[in-house]
What does this fold into?
Amino acid sequence: MEKITVKKDELLLQLRANRDDHRRIFVEALEGFHREAIKELQDRMDDVLAGKRHSIYITKQVPTDHTSDYDRAIRVVEMSIGETIGLTEGDFARYVMDDRGWQKECVRNSYVSNTATTKFSDYMVTDK
It folds into this structure.
């Protein structure tokens, strides 16, 4: 598909909505990360205090905040001259459909973000 032209105002509305969703997912994920990390650390401490002897490994991936990626895209569009913006199919996927390379990983590590579960239900497939 060749470039398409979209209305600048509509693109900005979508970018801002996607940014707000991402930020909400990040905050919810960070809260979930804290809850799970504290629980897991407490469980390991309880084992040690109870005299259980086993190796302790804790690996929790900290949620990643990509809000600045959205802010940059928004600023580029804001500073663009004219009422329309040309987008490739890839640009449309990223900026309008919110389909980014890191999106699936971000959602998988969302620690049960209600926003992520709702917005990206097709990504929320677990390997369990």
